[in-house]
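Hello again,

I reread your note about wanting to compare the complex against the isolated chains. To keep things tidy I'm splitting this into two emails, and this first one only covers the full assembly. Below are the input lines as submitted, including protein chains and any nucleic acid or small-molecule components. They are followed by the predicted structure of everything together. The single-chain runs will come separately.
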Amino acid sequence: MANLKNPILVAPSLMAANMLFLKDEVQAVKAADADWLHLDIMDGHFVPNLTFGPDIVSQLRKTFPSKNSLEFDVHLMVEPVELFINLYKNAGADRITIQATPNLHRFLGYIKELGCKAGVSLNPGTAIETIYPVLDIVDQVLIMSVNPGFCGQKFIASSVLKIEDLAKIRKIRNLDFKIIVDGGITTENAGLVVNAGADVLVSGNSIFKSKDYSTAIAALRHPHI
Ligand code: DX5
Ligand code: ZN
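Full-complex prediction:
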């Protein structure tokens, strides 16, 4: 699951950044060797918080146009999700992850038709069996290791077992989706989740509340396993 540049990908979650200086914050994580920019989109309905509208994402995309240097990884926590997929694709998303819904198969297919990488996200209380039927069409599975809504929450340890199970299923079925872990990731638990099979570490506070983004990203990427 590794790419040639970095074996473990690190995706800073912009909602933990200083909102008054978004452009500078994105430039800083890009300079600090971030692989993806993780954009948490919240609607105050599906989750009790509000974050970035499509216009903000679109302005950021104009400022950082090359997906080769920083992929925009949009994590939609909105309802109804079908109203927003196109908006965020047009705003510049390279990857779109949606929460597991009854119409999951249709919406993942739609995301792929639009030319984006498609992902499904599982909340801590949702079993991985829920997404077995779509594992052969997804590009990424995002395991939420906190309940969605806020940065800086405590990592839920049962996520490690979920990642292990998912990695096993991926191997058995000979699939190649990426396993992303999102929520409460720190240098203390990064090794655990990587060992369990995670390929991409999303991190908000551990990066944006650190003094030195390069050091923080490098420490997540090379945890002491
Ligand atoms: C939570 C979001 C996460 C969060 C990560 O709903 O999906 O991306 O911002 O932030 P930390 O790493 O601080 O938990
Ligand atoms: Zn997220």
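For quick reference: The helical segments are 22-31, 54-63, 85-91, 104-113, 159-172, 187-196, 205-208, 213-221.

B.
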